[in-house]
Amino acid sequence: MTSNPMTTRRSFLKITVSSAGGLLLYSALPIPSSANRVIQDNQTSKDVTFRPNVYIDISPNNAVFFSIGKSEMGQGTLTGIAQLLADELECDWTDISIIQADASPEFGFPSNGFMATGGSSGLRSEWDRMRTMGATARIMLQQAAALRWGVKLSSTVAMLGTVIGPDNQSASFGHLAKDAAMLAIPETVELKHSSKRTYIGRSVKRVDTLQKVTGKAQFGIDIKLPDLLTAIVIQAPRIGASVKSFDAGDMRQRNGISDVVQISSGIAIVGDHYWAVHSARDAVAIEWELGELSTLDSQQIKASYDQALNTQGFLAEQKGNVEELPSDSAVTLKVHQPFLAHACMEPMNFTVSITSTGAEVWGPTQAQSAVQRVVAAVAGIEPKSVVVHTTFLGGGFGRRSAMDFVQAAAEISHTIKRPVKLMYSREDDMRSYRYRPYNATLATGLLDAAGRWVGLDVKVAVPSVSTWSGFGFLLREDGLDPQAVEGFINSHYDIPNTRVEWINHDSKVPVHFWRSVGSSHNPFVLETLVDKLASKAQKDPLSFRRALLKKSPRHLHVLNRLASFSEWTTPSQVGVGRGLALTEAFGSIVAEAVEVTMNNGVPQVQSVWCVVDCGLAVNPMQVEMQMRSSIVYGLSAFLRGKITFENGTVEQSNFHDYTPLRMNELPDIFVEIIEGDDKPGGVGEPGLPPLLPAIANAIYALTGEDITELPYENGRS
Amino acid sequence: MGLCGACTVHLNGNPIRSCVMPVSSVGDANITTIEHVSNSTSGNSVLEAWQEIDVPQCGYCQSGQIMSATALLSMNSEPSIEEIDNAMSGNICRCGTYSLIRTAIELAATTTGQFNDK
Fold this sequence. Notes:
Oligomer: heterodimer
Low-confidence stretches of chain A: 1-33
Structural class of chain A: alpha+beta
Shape of chain B: globular
Largest sheet of chain B: 3 strands, antiparallel
Largest interface: A-B, 56 and 49 residues
Strand content of chain B: 5-15%
């Protein structure tokens, strides 16, 4: 998979518009998508005849239903997983509908049955199972045909929803479904050779586009049920405060309001619709009991992280002996990176119905198994009996695997004994914590007399985000949270002496997985350190890195491809700074180069080149879109992303003071996908880690400025 | 309020942010929402292009993007990149579909609208 017409150099917009051929590369594939639909009410086809496993249903009229348990937050997982199933099944893409599966262990990770979407792991974790399930169904259909025709199984072939026999007999999957359903399910099946793939590796159009352009897509916020009430929760304006008392006055008699109840996270106002409850916020008198964090401010946080760097932590990696190296040729950086909000377009919301007979819930969640546990605990029932329906997610980025909004909705429903949809306003959402952790890192790189990088000494102060996120099972046996040191340990750079220490410093502000997690901050430090070491060694950033990648051929290849793709070695124009960075995260290697100009002290990113080795690109178009998505998300963070505290209160509240990138700030972005392993690596997150350091390195190259604090506005000297 | 553009609908064909438009000020003006944007030629072209280019990711901002794009093309059938940016920069996309939105608008400007929503 090499570069595609959509991203050929600067004139790509003109090419794609004026030359229809450029656009049509993706759409010329003979796989129209307009018939595909995503079904969320889990009404399995009443017509189902052949269901060899919970993932595949085939009906007599040839309709194929794929039940998929991954949460669709824009990353294209429903499309990608459907490609895995369809490729081995050999059905016709136009016959497919997707059923968004309710929570059940079969839709959890194959390794442990835990149902969740995150870590760029959807295709990676389902690669074997989905293809096996598709192949199993196909073999059984072929067997049914072989029996019907009295021929050998090996003389039949399946393609585009039809089985064909040796004498041109043919039967559609629909016609064979009833017979196939009577056969024994084979225990093992052989998967296709990669050269025979039909859907995997092609830029098939997304299965959810039609719904999303016609306003028919159902997000959590859209859920409608009979007798459904709507609720908002007034949460403590200062972090850590709790309700001491409240007086709802005559609110319960107000038009549109049905109840005002206290739950563990604050005071819930329940009523007929959002406007009724939202406009009643100020009418409840609440007395808050202040907690120990009530005067928290960002100066304190910064100071405490500075102090933390002077303490001892958890030794995560030690190679050679960094302490014995001469330190006369060293670069030390101390870098502070801020809390970041996810700022999904769809604010957090969840719909819960707890009754005397059980619990049924609906909403945009990334962690269905956790939802079951949380709701079950409130309702006093078994987790497995909580029915969880997943809607589309209006953005996820990790935020929707948190349980705050699920817990609150469950408590409200349980208290008032009615189904309720809890909605956060944008302000509630922005101030609901669960941020990317604030972190501080002290990193020293040591060169030898010949200017080779021989030592890396890192102390990173950051809380255990895996524990906070409810994913404590990700911790290593010895207690290390791999996310705290990701990007520093097991480096692809050949550094003979390393020491990486994790200081589990926790400001007690709730934190959560944020797009690329530990790789959202650690590679920023490492890759900016690399450029300063290169500068000290009087080498350019490209050759300095090349020399360190002799034992990492895949990484070297990605870097070299980036160099030619971005024409790195041609002189840049006056006033244009260039920077690059190379990172690996979630199973994929990405290198990015950036060109930046400075306008009155404000950096303008003009162009970004991205080369990704994600192993096997199941859907190259969607891989490219995830790289673009990560670049835009990361650029917002670099320029303006920060959540700050003043007197215990989060200072940001909406898009006017937590301002994401808008269209008029978009740089030119060019993406190239290169082939690696014959299995997929992650794609949703890996494009983000190299972007921020590449920009910082470009600014460093242009102005000599060290950026040791983000967002950029804080780092201006 | 009025900060992200996702709520964009048309009032007499003009793009407005419905979240800050009181119902009382609508009077008897025509309101068009995403469900009926295909009724106009420009809307049809936009929807066709959006499908052709496969623009959406999470999709939450897309109704508003489509409404803004349709309003732009109904008033300016061949917008420049600057004009596209000006018209569209009120619509935030956290998934970063901006490059495809631009391409889709440029494509829509060249087609006559044959959207098929079967």
